[in-house]
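A reminder before we start the practical. When you read a complex entry, don't treat the lines as separate problems. The point of joint prediction is that each chain is placed relative to the others, so the output describes one connected object in space. Small molecules and nucleic acid strands, if listed, are placed in the same frame. In the example below there are two entries. Take a minute to note the order of the lines before looking further.
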Amino acid sequence: MRALAGAGPSLAGALCIALVACAGQPTGAESRVLTAPLFEHQLGNGLQVVVVPWDSPGVMAYATLVRTGSRDEVEPGRSGYAHLFEHMMFRGTPRHSEGDYARILRQLGAEDNATTNDDRTLYTILAPATALETIMDLEADRFQNLSYTEEVFRTEAGAVLGEAHTLSSQPQIALLERLREVAFDHHPYEHTTLGLVEDIRAMTEGFEYSRNFFHRFYRPENTIVIVVGDVVPEIVFALTERFYGSWERGYQTPAVVQEPAQTATRRETLRWRGPTAPWLAVGYRAPAFTTASVDTAAIDVLASLLFGEASPLYQDLVVNRRLADVIAGALTDHRDPYLFEILIRASDERHLPAIEGALAEAMEQLREHPVEKELLEAVKSHLRYEFALELDSPLHVAEDLAHYIALTGSSSTVHEVFARYAQVTPADVQRMARELFRSPSATTVLLIPGDDRTAAPEAEP
Amino acid sequence: MRARSSQTVLLAASVLLGSCGSQPRIDTVVRPASSSPLVAIRLLVRAGSAHDPPGKEGTAALTGLMLARAATKLRTYPEILDDLYPTASSIEVRTDREVTLFETVVHLDHLDILTDLLVESLTRPAFGDEDFERNRDQLLAELDTVLRTDDELLGLELLQQTIFSGHPYGHAPAGTSESVAALEIEDVRTFFDQHYTRDRMLLGVGGGAPDGYAEQLQRRLAKLPSGGAPDALPPAPELIGRHLTLVRKATSGVGIHLGFPLAVTRTDEDYVPLLVATTILGDHRTFHGRLIEELRIARGLNYGDYAYVEYFHDPPETSSPTPNVPRRHQYFSIWLRPVAPQLAPFALRAAVYELERLIEEGVSEDEVETTRTYLRHRSKLWALDGSSQVGFALDSRYYDMPPFLEDLDRRLERLSATEVNDAIRVHLQSTNLQIVFVGGDTDALRDTLATEQAPLPEYPSPSSDSRRATDRDIASLSLDLTSIREISVDELFSVPAL
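Here is the predicted structure of the whole assembly.
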């Protein structure tokens, strides 16, 4: 699943969907999800290019996906560098200074953005389609020739600390950070993409390391260019050969330590200095994203059954007893085994035990009783149309595609996922509920208001 | 239907469904149909928080929730959720100062389901006790867990409340803890009867809606009664002096907001010149603008710094203007994202410094030309999806002006630097400001702000002499604060008056 699926004003999930059901093994032709065709090309240096002609007259989305995220931060003291590097990518090249880059995009009226998560970094530009060559020139240049001074690096490290300040006021972010810290001991998923505060503060001294980061990970065989919009695939491919063809291979695979199995439950309470509602976060060890089987597809169905607005749990906790006003849960797609995360905002701290009880009971129901076929079909329909509703702009299409390509390196994944959803049976759901919701693999963190131990980061000295 | 050129897709005039004889009607805007299988529907009702009865702040928002997230006379709320679930669609509701918006995007396959629900919700609401208590709790939770928790939303909302203190705009749409806790179901029924009339509604339809659909929908909704409460608003409060509000809250950074009332809306001649001026000062969430260039890019003080000529909805989460938050009273604002507490006095002065520089020196022809070109291109990206297109069309109708995006492009095309500088001189000033700080040690901030000189920032790398000289000028800028008030975050949004 792409994000936490659930119900509530601020945690509504999104999930990609099959528009066409398929039988048997997932393939490209029969399991087509997007009604628009995908065109693909690969350069000799390993760079992949995916083009989707889309009905957005005069507009295109140009996305560059680097399959490096905070998961790749394996060296101690270096958490947050994938995200920092996302910032550094805007700081210029010998041919195009930072100001040049900004000026050109500005003249085009382009909207550019970048995001980093555990497994990837994505750079997007929404621009007039007539600017394809200009955009590609700029992007190819900075991905191959990025150049910045130590002074600039140190200044940007300060901005990242500012971003950390911006996010630090939200208790649910601190909660999810702590959940990961407690649930993982070895894998880099232990820290969030923003990084540990002490590592962020130390970033100003990491200039050389940042250059090394670029040379190790920003390589063509680790990168995919995705163009969606009013474009012609053959023209895009020809341009990529011209602009990216000389980019040299050299990707170095980081030694990511896999997390051993969890053998006992883990539990912690976090006190938050400042106003907050009480929160409950639970993480169950869960498998990595896959389309080789229906397993993670069945878990996504499970998440909708448990936390969707039509679910018994939502009806009980939110509508009838009003013990909570937000409930959400999902296995967000990850390259490595991760957590099925559950996040519930209670209406009162005294309701937390009852909420945990209701959650346990709902999980027990799914373990012991196969879901009715009619309900399973309703979930599949929900997932299908939820995806369809996302396809409202070239940028969203590019982002959805990038999500799946980041996980496997293949554009066919977006079709395979939805083929697997169509194949999920009640027995699959029950099997995954039994495998997933086992107490030794559970980590629970409660966040409640109080002053005993602050969870708000200390101010800068 | 094959795609049209970008010009016509985004700028095509919406169709207004005219009156047909003496049949009751709802004012309806229809966007030309696209090839998309997604249908966008928006209903804008003149029933915002400015219409909350005194002492009953939050009524408009609660009424909206009772229509969009509650039972009807035909179905319970769980039944509605069951019916909606396979469609993945829902009716979303949002209350702002002047309007409440109901919107949905639905696949053509399920258009009938959402249409029936929308009509049923608006014309046959149940107003049951259980739904009322749940939705009232929802509003209280929003105050407790969103506004008080999220520093940036808190600061953005509080700035509005300080600028419009004592005015119908002067409280959050979610009301206050005290007022919402005291609301009763009869308050909602009364509000609904007074404000949910067909004369106070604007309906918008777009995306891949079938021919004739909009007319059918408006006829069904037009069964609502006519008339409704008066819609007059008093003028914005007069602001004299510089007033600082310090919010005591445990945070690692200090968020800074400043602004003043602005007697310019989209219909005014000076709107576009001021839009260009504020874009030059601080373009929303881009790296362009004097503020971000000086505060973040040059000095690394924080994550972002922006300026606005009108209310901008939920800026932390959006990159483009959100339609359907129209207001007849606007305000100019500057938003500095959190800085380290010891840098807050300097950052505030830096923002005032840039504002004063804008006022005293104006903008160059080059800057206007660059920004004009940028906005002409960028605005064409604001409404790529059917729902946004409907939204902007509704706003144009609300303001009784030509289609906004088309009109903006036309006005930008003929804009001159002289007009921009004239508008700056007429409307922008720095003498009378409301300023809000959220977080940090308020005692220490108060003490530091009382001194004539702000602490200078320390940079991780050596900085140039000119930078240092500018820093000294900024640090010694006099704030001349007329008042400093301190308030705890726990007190905020508890009672109507600040």
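Discuss with your neighbour: The CA atoms of residues 178 and 304 of chain A lie 25 Å apart. What might explain this?
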